Protein 1
Amino acid sequence: MKKTLSLLLALALLLTCAAGLAEEKKQVKVGIILLIENGAFLDMKEGIISGLAKAGFVEGENLTVDYQNAQGDSANLGTICQSMDDGTYDLVFTVATPATQYFVGLESETPCVFCSVAAPVAAGVMADLAVPDKNATGTSNAIPAGDILSLGLTITPDVKTFGLLYCTNEINALNAMANAKVWLTENGYAYEEATITASAEVQTAAQALLEKDIDAVFVANDATVQAAVDVLVEMCNEEGIPTYCCSATTVLSGCLATLAMSDIAIGEQTAEIAVQVLSGTPIAEIPAVVVPADIVSVNVKTMQALGIELPESLTALGEIQYLGE
């Protein structure tokens, strides 16, 4: 009888230990890396965390999140990426192109799930959206440059020449502007361009464009322009020049309009991909997802400053989101 009880106690202890180990295995540690903070990227981060929670990975319970912001410094970004390549993370989220390029470049054994990389193939983080080959997959907010320019022409149909302003250091901006130039040329519109390498150059670049015969400005989806876009908008509004962009966050900062997607939603879709990775699906079997742009974002104050009324036909392009009221 005593032997039976002892065996039962031993078995109970073993089961308890096994349950504890199983519980430990359910603990997940992820990193989230940003080169720089702005409204869009912070919304994406929020979407990632809320998306994980919907799948049962709750921060403070069975999920540890190490969030790191490089404060716009490339050297800091490198240090952060290297620190997360230590084998202790179940996966690392990289928000936007620069962070993704750096982490993927480490050839880490830690899976990388990227969020909002406009052109993953051009950025060199995968060779094919359908077949991830560098231990990285995620979501792409491929910028529909032609659709945004078409939106601009719907709102301000008298535009003949666009001014293009973008940072030459960001592959996503280069890709968006290359597509914009092709679309403008194919559709018979002219363009002038001004490029920058730092946010401090936005004012000079904007002035250079305004001194030319342009009717509207189109800015790329890069953090460098975003950091000083309010300067651009103020100068353009004074001259009665509408400004179009690639992000709802940039519209909130003052640009007239864009055709975009929800930043929180793209974060949540990124989390859905991560859940597949955490469930054991190899990254090579999880294609990257291109998130469609289906929201027309308009800045009310800028619209009023320019004396613009939105045409009724705009509703055909998507849900209209009014910002900056």
Protein 2
Amino acid sequence: MKMLFILAWRNLWRNKRRTLITASSVFFAVILALVAESMTKGSHEAMISNMVKLSTGYLQLQDSLYEDEPSVDHAFMYDDTLKQIIRQTSGIAYVVPRFESFMLAATEKSTRPVMLRGVDFEAENRLNDMGHKLLEGTSLEAGDQAVLLADGLAERLKMDVGDSIILVGQGFRGMSAAGIYPVKGIMKISLPRLNDQLIFMPLAATQQLFGAEERLTALLITPEEKEQTDLLAQQLRDQLDPKWFKVLTWKQMMPTLLQSLELDRASGMMIIYMLYLVVGFGILGTVLTMMLERQREFGILLSVGMKRSQLALITFVETVFISMIGVAAGLVGGFPVILYMHHHPIRFGEEMEAMFETYGMEAVMPFALDLQVFSSQAVVVLLITLVIGLYPVLKVFRMNILKAARN
């Protein structure tokens, strides 16, 4: 058996051109597949990250009735018992408390429905990097009785830093919620829908406005590993009483986003499958050429006593070796390409910004630097070449020895 492997390896380098041509087709196939998959995965991760962070979070803890009736009356008490459960649950990186409600915002000349989001600015900044989104003014502090306006809302209400805004709504359990607050800053929110209606206020001031001290409408939970979101959700569900609390993942809260990602993923896979098809036929062509060139050689080997099974194994091992050389070279050559594109993503012009903003993304095409991208594409291309490697095996078993030896 060892001798057969040695013969197969030596046979590769008897015709270096043929070997290098076949290995090169595998090499370029791996690199193209890596780039396509990395680009698809990178854009999806960026879209999920932006949408999730600005809206639902990866995981969200709510009152059991809040999802069906999102009212401040269904805000839950964030007490020591609940905090203890959160602290003792492994896999949680940090939590972001929020108190949200729709209100009516008024100025001297106009009124507009808005979403008021009470936040712990330190925790919110950790999730959304809020400091870098500030266009004018200064950030909120815990004891402030002031607000930050989204850029689009400020433009619609024609407000600037230092102006005052009136907020009117319904508080906890029928109380009146109304107040006048100075605008401390203006922020740019990448999601257009939120940019036209979002107001930030310190969490304590928001709770006081609604008469709901120590209560939250949602507790956003960020897992240490994003892939463990579903597992972490189940751990929390096992510890919390479903009569009072509900734990939801971003997939459950944003099914439309999930469906659009699945559709985009399917269209991206169609392109990759076409690439696989082209590559497969390219490799098959080189294998067919190899069989025609070596037909006389195979006929002579069988004539002098080599078993068909031994010859078939040698041809198969040759294909395996060529595939492994091409895949290894593709991984080595593709890594610096993906690494460079990961740190220097493709940037589009201003005309593309509006389209990207609808998904809450910058006008860039990010690339994912993920081990799974490398392993999956390498395995697929290797499997394709191994399947093609079965052709020489079948050819050897069906070969007419006398006819082959005379060619």
Protein 3
Amino acid sequence: MATYFSLAWRNLWRNKRRTIITVTAIVFAVLAAVLMQSVNRGSYEVMIDRMVSFNTGYIQIQDFRYDDESSLDNSFLYDQELRESILNADDRIEKIVPRIETFMLAANDISTRGSVVFGIDHEKEHKFNGIKNYLVDGRFFESGEQATVLGQGLANRLQLSVGDTLALMGQGRFGMSASGLFEITGILDHPIRDMNNQAVYLPLDTAQELLSAEDHITAILIIPQSERHTEAIAESIRQHLENEELVAYTWPQLLPEILELMEMDLAVPRLLTVVLYVVIGFGFFGTILTMTMERLREFGVLLSVGMKRVHLASVLFIETLFFSVIGVLFGLAVAWSILKLIDPINLTGEAAQAVIDLGYDPIIPMSFAPDQFYIQGLYVFLIAMLVFLFPLLKISKLNILEAARS
């Protein structure tokens, strides 16, 4: 077998131009496939990451009635015993973040706007999603403080700024009246556009008091040590809470619309990727076809001096293997380097403004998901192996005398 590898490696470099052309074709194929996938997936990864970080969490624990009726009446008691119980459900849980959420009217002296009020522990939130990094003015409140942080869009609509007073009016738990005045200590440029126009953040204990929901919350967000553990941790929690009125949902279960939209939007790029693979396959086949026809006389001589067809086929297979492995690895390295160099692509002018108007940052982020590298590389490798069937078939039917005379 070592002899076959040695022969195959020497054959590769007998015609350097042919080898370089073949390897370059594979490199281009891998590069094009990875870049296309990275650009398409990058924006969705950012969007999902923000929705998970600021909305659902990777796993969310709720009262089993809350999904059908998002009411404070379906909040649940959160105490140290429940916290320890959840942490003990799975060793891969990194941290848990409690929240209480409801809809209220936010008002200044002359106008009102609908708002989503979040009662949070801002220190735990920051460790999860870096919420303090989005402050554009002021500071975050302290626990127990009668203060609030607003989304910048909501503050602009109500013409309020740091130091002003915000009035909140709504309904608390079990129909109790809920209203209060809160000093605005900070303005937040929320990364989710809808939240930027609606979000009001209060200290968790202050929000619970306002809503007559002392020690109650509407959700516990679970942060796993690694995202890949999400499903396993959720299942562990479900088994741990089997006799409780609490249920655990993963983020795909809480955001099905976004996943469906993403799948629909990625259908065209996937079709283009298939077309790219077809083009790649025919291009590679053309290269192998030319290489095979040029070497028919060589094959005939080798067979005429006693080399068995299976051994010749083995050498050709190893040559194709070398072509594929070198091309795929080099292609992945080039793709990763280019992505690192251009990530992210900053938009300017009208294109940037159009993206900003849609509520997104004026950038095109690149995805570095490991699967898009090894899967694209695997597909191109399989195409190369499939193309190898042509020289294999040619050798099996080769007429030794005619080939040796050609």
Protein 4
Amino acid sequence: MSQYFHIHPDNPQGRLIKQAAEIVSKGGVIVYPTDSTYAVGCQIGNKKALDRVRQIRHLDTEHQLTLICRDLSELGSYAQVSNRAYRILKALTPGPFTFILQGTKEVPRRLLCPKRKTIGLRVPDNRITQALLTEHNESLMTTTLAMPGDDLPMWDPDEMRDVLEHQVDLIIDGGSCGLEPTTVIDLTDDIGHMVRQGLGDASLFF
């Protein structure tokens, strides 16, 4: 049965953040809020935890996975970033955007899109997420908390508890999140293009 933490969205309790980071470090799978929707995540290099996330979401190996990072410098260690891509990243982070980039050797192969060798990358503007990343001292593998067959992501922590209490190790209730996912931008070439229009506004660039 999963643990359930109420964490204040503006002033995250350090004790609970530390416990959440410990759960991740021990291979746990967690549900947590972001600046767009709730997400499910785990430690980057833990294959068993990744397999559990894939099972919850019914994801195949072709699904583009995402790493959620503390800042632009951490993001840059996982991706090949051109000058134009860097300008866009600098302007739009932190925020509700997912960037598709060519992965570096720092990204475990199992996390890369098999055909394109790409990885999704995010720098969220959410205090709970940022506190968790800082305490964990590493990025998280993450994906939107949308259950198989559902058109919208899960948004109600009480429902998450009912549905997922035997599938995840921790649910962080950080208050209401939206239902609109991130805007996805492919930056694998020098031009860049929008893959999905979501919450973030990138009209200045596209």
